[in-house]
Amino acid sequence: MILDVHTHYVPRGWPDLGWPGAPRLRVDSEREAMILVDSREFRKIQDNCWSADVRLAEMAADGVDAQVVSPTPVFFGYERPAEQAVRVAKIFNDLALEICTDDRLIPFCQVPLQDPDLACAELDRCLEQGHRGVEIGNHVGDRDLDDDGVVQFLQHCAATGTPVFVHPWDMESSPRLNRWMAQWLVGMPAETHLSILSMILGGVFDRVPPSLKVCFAHGGGSFAFWLGRFENAWHRRNDLVGVSEFPPSHYLDRFSVDSVVFDERALRLLVDTMGEERVMLGSDYPYPLGESPVGGLIRSAAFLSDEARARILGGNAAVFLGKK
Ligand code: CO
User: Fold this and answer.
1) Rounded Cα–Cα distance for residues 162 and 108 (Å)
2) Is 324 a residue whose pLDDT tops 50?
3) How far is the CA of 287 from the centre of ligand 1 (A)?
4) Closest by Cα among 252, 276, 259, 241 to 196
5) Could you tell me what percent of the chain has a pLDDT over 70?
6) Rounded to the nearest whole angstrom, what is the distance from the C-alpha of residue 232 to the centroid of ligand 1?
7) Rounded to 5 degrees, what are φ and ψ at 258?
């Protein structure tokens, strides 16, 4: 079973809500559309974002048996009034179920994370309707994942056995980061790194039960490469950094990361750091910074045993999703 835990969709029927700053979809043809933020062209997308048939055909070509289908983060709406974000989430989540009628497409919902009660309620509604997990952004404005409201939501996920996929979004903007896709190439890995730090140092892993299933996108960003720096700082500058009960390396068995790192040396570091039980195939399909063909790196990585390869390609994800 080859299972891709990191893919995105955009529903073709996304309505224009008429709210300033809300993403809109301009459908240019049967096969192409443009995501617009205000009047700015944000990203050109194709029918593999919304067509189950196209997705299933491309999965078959890449030898992928199933994929988790998550929202595209620009549509989260965490910066909007909560009641607007609920409306966005409901439309998005209901349209996702129209795309994911085949068992091979596993829908993850989005929630209005700025309001924990509404987020828990939307998650419950979605789980009842057929969603299998939730994708959350890695921060809500200036609040990181150790925010009390976010932790309340994560505790609810743990209580309901809901897998959580954390995706970076809403990267810092500045003249230096707005060139060369630097928000994606530098900002996203740093955002994800910061999220893992916030869950460790913010005591989230001390507060939520070990049953919480959480996976970070893009190999956990720059976290694995800099774990040693983090560990050293925790011991040497404990006056500033030592707010978690244990040193950072203690918490590595509390979360997973996906595999979309493009380089065998990086994958080896991830598997060495996280363990072969905590790396899962992810591709970022169908976007241009995703892996194509999906799973190519894991399949070709010479250092992996057959058993480890099978786990990373699908066995770990089956556990994450609670599949038999
Ligand atoms: Co992604």
Assistant:
1) 10
2) no
3) 8
4) 252
5) 99
6) 31
7) -90, 180
Q: Which two tokens stand for residue 277?
A: 């039980």
What is the number of alpha carbons within 13 Å of residue 281 lying toward its C-beta? 32
- How far is the centre of ligand 1, averaged over its atoms, from the C-alpha of 304 (Å)? 25
Residues facing 9 on adjacent strands: 71
- The domain total for the chain is 1
d(CA 248, CA 315): 26
Name the residue range of residue 25's domain.
3-320
Q: Do 54 and 89 meet the contact criterion of CB atoms below 8 Å apart?
A: no
Strand locations in 180-293 (E): 214-216, 256-258, 279-280
Half-sphere exposure of 157 (CA within 13 A, CB side): 32
- Please tell me what DSSP assigns to residue 169: -
Q: Which of 268, 153, 283 is nearest to 218 (CA)?
A: 283
Q: Is the pTM of this model over 0.85?
A: yes
What CATH number does the domain containing 105 carry?
3.20.20.140
The residue type found at 307 is: E
pLDDT at 13: 85
Determine the distance separating the centroid of ligand 1 and the alpha carbon of 285, expressed in angstroms.
Answer: 7
User: 50: CA distance to ligand 1 center in Å?
Assistant: 15
DSSP string, 109-155: E---TTSHHHHHHHHHHHHHHT--EEEEES-BTTB-TTSHHHHHHHH
**CA of 66 relative to ligand 1 center, distance in Å:** 16
- Separation of 168 CA from ligand 1 center, angstroms? 8
> In one letter, which amino acid is 15?
P
Collapse the DSSP code of 221 into the 3-class scheme (helix H, G, I; strand E, B; otherwise coil) and give the result. coil
Say how far apart CA 21 and CA 93 lie, in whole Å: 20
